[in-house]
Specification:
Layout lengths: L1 H19 L1 E8 L10 E4 L5 E3 L5 E5 L4 E7 L6 E6 L3 E6 L9 E4 L2 E4 L7 E5 H4 L7 H4 L7 E5 L8 E5 L12 E4 L2 E2 L23 E7 L3 H6 L7 E6 L5 E14 L10 H21 L6 H19 L5 H4 L6 H4 L4 E13 L3 E13 L6 E16 L2 E15 L23 E2 L4 E2 L34 E18 L2 E13 L1
Parallel strand pairs: 1-7, 13-16
Antiparallel strand pairs: 1-4, 2-3, 2-5, 5-6, 8-9, 10-15, 11-12, 13-14, 15-16, 17-18, 18-19, 19-20, 20-21, 21-24, 22-23, 24-25
Length: 501
Amino acid sequence: MKKFYLLNLLLIISLSVFAQNTVKGKVTDAQTGLPLSGASVTVKGEKQGAVTNDEGIFSLNISSSSKTIVVTSIGYAAKEVQATAGSTLDIALTQTSKSLNEVVVVGYGTKVAKDITGSVSRVNAKQITNTPATSFETAIQGRAAGVYVAQQNGKLGQAINVTIRGGSSVTAGNQPLYVVDGIPVTAADLSGNGSSTNSLSDINMNDIQSIEILKDASAAAIYGSRASNGVVLITTKKGRAGTSKIEFNYFTGVQNPTEHREFLNSKQYVDFFEQASLGAAKVEYDLGYYNSLNAAQKDWQSYTEGRFTRYSAGNEDWKKGKINTNWEDQAFQHAPISQYDLNVSGGTEKTKVFLSGQYLDQTGILIGNRFRRYSARLNIDQQIRSWLSVGMNMNFARSKNNRLSDDDQFSSPLQIVALSPITPVIDPRTGLISGAFDTNPDNYGKPNTNYPLYFNPLLAYGNNAYFNTLVNRTFGNVYLNANVTSDLVFRSEFGMDQLNQ
């Protein structure tokens, strides 16, 4: 029984001592009286420290009965207060009139913005939030001085050219180096057939906290020759201590082409080639191929009308003006787009988490073109000890791209404008798309090489063929930070970028 009482007595004494060595308090703005969250509270000359919560409240253990407490917060003058064990403090900070210098992430560290103003452009999350774009390169267009962004064509998931301060090479690439959370990532065109791909389309734009673009030679000093065209540093969002946040974003819309070109209608087409045939007849008559101009014109007229009948699916509807096909319209389609984003962030002073997911479904304005992407990100920071922390930034993306042929191929949708306006979309002899089969009974079922004038791209981008690219990609890093001294930090990091296409 005596041992039991003694144990209780010791426990009460230890709890009393612990309580007496705790200093509590609240930090506020001296002018407004509002609480200051994120203010740093440390014991002068020692390693003990704490950070105020959303209500400006802190709790700090001190090793003796009396210590000097140092309170600091960005934009406020530091304040020293004498604290006694077990006391509760009310500390008001005064805003400083000195202007703060923005700190910019540069390679493996940070620099004060005023020291590198001419070489760095910065785009933050607020500037690109709610931008109806599916790729971050498109979102930074016009927002960064000295950075030129040009989309090669209107095809989804295909290469976007980003040039920093003009082209630096005639024959080699001019693309900058892209670094995500300290890891250089693949940004090259990985296509093996000439229809280019965009490796950066796997990055969820809504995961980005900031983008720094290094434009001067100092970038090469950090990253070497890979940075000769500049460096684009991407920092993703992190969790913050305090109240957890859940955000859901959704946008939808419709895309349609603008500035249509005008092509010859069926009457203009027929008139043009009839005039051309008269000119050809005169040339051959002048060269002595015919004894009379009338005979030459009759032959050329017969030949030309035969061609018209062939292009008009074997009939003479071209004479009656019944067929007037606008083939450019056939190359475009109604193009809806939808994007869903969900992210959760929050944590404590020791553990901070950011978790996000996205689904994107975008149809291209050109027939047969569609891009879908699923992505997820997990960023974790864990404070194990006051001097040791570990963390992870990891992203997974899966995309499927219904691609299109290059613009110089006849199977590319816009090459459809080479077809004649007197050619119908549907061949009345077969009920199929013009050009699907040879209508000659001897060759029925074989590819048509005689009608229409050129290959019809509608055959490729209907339900008859597909040109899909599937990408699974994982990139990110895990790291360890150890504060060896107040001026020396040891960091060990492992990063990866695995791309399967």
